[in-house]
């Protein structure tokens, strides 16, 4: 774990370097598409003071100057299965985005949905040496959290302090400078399979990019698709992607749970392909043009030409009613939503004060999904679109870009993670120069 | 039925192109997007090539000479076109002798190209001539160099230590004079510093209207005041301060009593409150006799 810990610290330094240079790439490697945004950071924007607008969730700080999305290749369930293909897809989208931005990028922040994310809640306690909480104490209490057995071959992707408690007071956001005796903290730790991360890192290194950050796509989709009060009061975001469906639960603006269902829009497409006996490309086209999950009487008369080029007249002239198509799609969508419901139940979502659920992602664009989801997930379901960010073209404002947009926000305002805090002195080797320097810095 | 040999040619489907750029293309694109490299290629390389080519061309002495020669001959061709040649010099606004002086001062080897003319210097040369107050030189269409001269008008004749000169109203010399009789129309002034007080002298001459037929000249005394010298060696001694007024008073007296027609050597007006007369010796004796100051002698 220390290995990835060091790597994450290195990424933070890389991110700082990228901010100084002013240009950073946002790369979303999904199962059905690879999207790349290029952000330009102008420092503190001039409009901030101008008309009393607040920081706008960090949006005024950056501007999207290059956007491209291309079909993903060699990615299944959000994990890289064919590295060369994925590398080509990343190269394609990066080159196009760089061309649009007319700028060269050297740093990328990446998100992915696979790797079987698992959440753990950690708790730690620390007796304060003097009564005032210092940064050192915060670092100590974070490292005092007892790490559960996350299994071999897994790495920590996020480790965010969620809550601090001082003596009997809890719910502290920032305990520094407060007076007490006993500091406790809750931390949310998200682990993913290490080979998935390593493959992705390798793939991006092969494109001459430095990685300035890694994020889980369920988490960043939640950042962009949920409005502020939903994040504050507690809500779940279901990011229905191509290969996986990511679930993230937020409360008090902190992610507290992430899970993923290894099913998504691609499975609906393959169902259609199998059910109607058409190629996958045609099935995808039929799904996006005519798909739905709520059949009405009108749909019986709505005949869809399936087509084909087999040379057999009977096969090539086939047509199905839209009801039949809905009959194929609906069970799969229901299955995905029921699986998501099961994950939410397992996470104890019903004990949260607010039961809001936000559906986003490319597969959430099926007409009638909100009605179907309301029957499975409860009444408080809405379809979420990503936040509007500066410079984003109309083509990239759909819900399929919510994790990419969320990643932009993540790049501008990252959540403090465990590796952002100072390393407690005990962690240094006993005779290291760094330890001596730290001792000087702390005591003078 | 078709024959087997005439089988329709099967169109060869082109291989599906991979939309992804190759690694080389990708790297080249990124290199091209690097600002420094881009500036180098867009500015540095053309500048270098141009400099290099020009340098190679000019490294040969023969080419350099040919180039300078071409440039010089081109320049000459343009310069010597008839449109730019000046063939005639016209001097306006000056007496013929002044015009001759101007021509001599300019000393232009006509015809000459107007590109070779330094009009400012020529103007300075013309204005250096004493008889010329100001000059204007311009090249007129048709190859005419027109010099418009504003000549100095001689107002007085000055007899100085170096001879006779004509002075204009400001006291500037306009010409030298051989003899006084060459310009009998102009009044004569003499004395030290007379040439520096010409305006005052001209005022006096203007005020001396009725005396003009008798006026022989003005004499500057002690570089301070004027004496009017009339015929019969009569002098009118004017004060340094407000001489015109004193002269007018004298003329008024003269008109009323015929003062200057009498046998008087000088009228001294230097003290305005006490004008004095100097009589001729004979008149003085006569007056004394009439007054009985000296006994009358018998006419023998």
Which structural class do the helices and strands of chain A define?
A: alpha+beta
The strand count of chain B comes to 14
Termini gap of chain B: 183 Å
**Helix-strand pattern of chain B:** HHHEEHEHEEEEEEHEEEHEEH
Question: What would the principal axes of the Cα set say about the shape of chain A?
Answer: globular
Task: Please give a handful of descriptors for the protein shown.
heterodimer; A: 444 residues; five-stranded mixed β-sheet; 15 helices; 38% helix; B: three-stranded mixed β-sheet; 8 helices
Spell out the blueprint of helices and strands:
The complex is a heterodimer of chains A (444) and B (300).
Chain A: H1 2-21, E1 23-29, E2 33-41, H2 47-50, E3 62-71, E4 75-76, E5 79-80, H3 83-101, E6 107-112, E7 118-127, H4 135-143, E8 154-166, E9 169-172, E10 182-193, H5 194-205, E11 210-216, H6 217-225, H7 228-233, E12 235-240, E13 245-251, E14 254-261, H8 265-276, H9 280-290, H10 297-301, E15 303-305, H11 313-316, E16 319-321, H12 322-347, E17 356-360, H13 369-377, E18 381-383, H14 402-412, H15 433-443
Helix pairs in contact in A: 3-5, 6-14, 8-9, 8-12, 12-13
Chain B: H1 23-33, H2 35-58, H3 61-79, E1 85-86, E2 88-92, H4 96-106, E3 112-113, H5 119-127, E4 132-140, E5 144-151, E6 154-160, E7 163-168, E8 173-177, E9 188-190, H6 198-207, E10 215-221, E11 225-230, E12 235-237, H7 243-257, E13 264-268, E14 276-279, H8 281-291
Parallel strand pairs in B: 2-5, 6-9, 9-10, 12-13
Antiparallel strand pairs in B: 1-3, 4-5, 6-7, 7-8, 10-11, 11-12, 13-14
